[in-house]
């Protein structure tokens, strides 16, 4: 299921990076920008852990929709760049829709949260693109 034009488990890797690094980045940016004299403590790390656990479950629909779209569009007669950018766009839309559905608010933290996750998502797409180039291929099939 998770094989595609840009390597094995491509979207799964991007999703995992986003779910695990997004909360860390958004929490620390929020701490830097919105800290009112509080000290860094273990509650912040518990909050990050909770975000990761909830993110795993809440972002699964986004992963599934993006994977279905990626598989469908990969079968079309489109060049790799078009497939790549359309997949980024759909992933950003489904991820943003997840935030809106579950949080539905627009305060300073949710804006930092959304931008952090989106930035990590985009970076993940570029970082993992063709990261499996070391695999041997014959007639576009991994062997």
Features:
143 residues, 71% helix, single chain, mainly alpha, two-stranded antiparallel sheet, 2 strands
Describe this structure as you would to a colleague:
The protein has 143 residues and is mostly helical. It is built from five helices and two strands; from the N terminus they run H-H-H-H-H-E-E. It has a two-stranded antiparallel ribbon with strand order 1-2. A hairpin with a 2-residue loop joins strand 1 (137-138) and strand 2 (141-142). Helix 3 runs antiparallel to helix 4 (80-102). The radius of gyration is 17 Å and the shape is elongated. The protein starts with 9 loop residues before the first helix and ends with a strand. Residues 134-139 have low confidence and may be disordered.
């Amino acid at each position: 299921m998770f094989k595609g034009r840009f390597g094995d488990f491509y979207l799964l890797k991007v999703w995992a990076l986003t779910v695990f690094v997004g909360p860390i980045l958004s929490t620390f940016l929020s701490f830097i920008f919105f800290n009112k004299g509080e000290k860094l403590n273990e509650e912040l790390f518990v909050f990050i852990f909770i975000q990761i656990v909830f993110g795993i479950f809440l972002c699964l629909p986004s992963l599934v929709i993006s994977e279905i779209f990626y598989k469908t569009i990969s079968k079309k007669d489109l060049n790799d760049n078009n497939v790549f950018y359309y997949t980024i766009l759909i992933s950003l839309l489904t991820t943003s829709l997840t935030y809106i559905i579950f949080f539905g608010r627009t305060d300073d933290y949710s804006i930092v949260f959304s931008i952090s996750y989106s930035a990590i998502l985009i970076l993940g797409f570029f970082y993992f693109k063709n990261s499996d180039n070391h695999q041997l291929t014959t007639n576009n099939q991994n062997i």
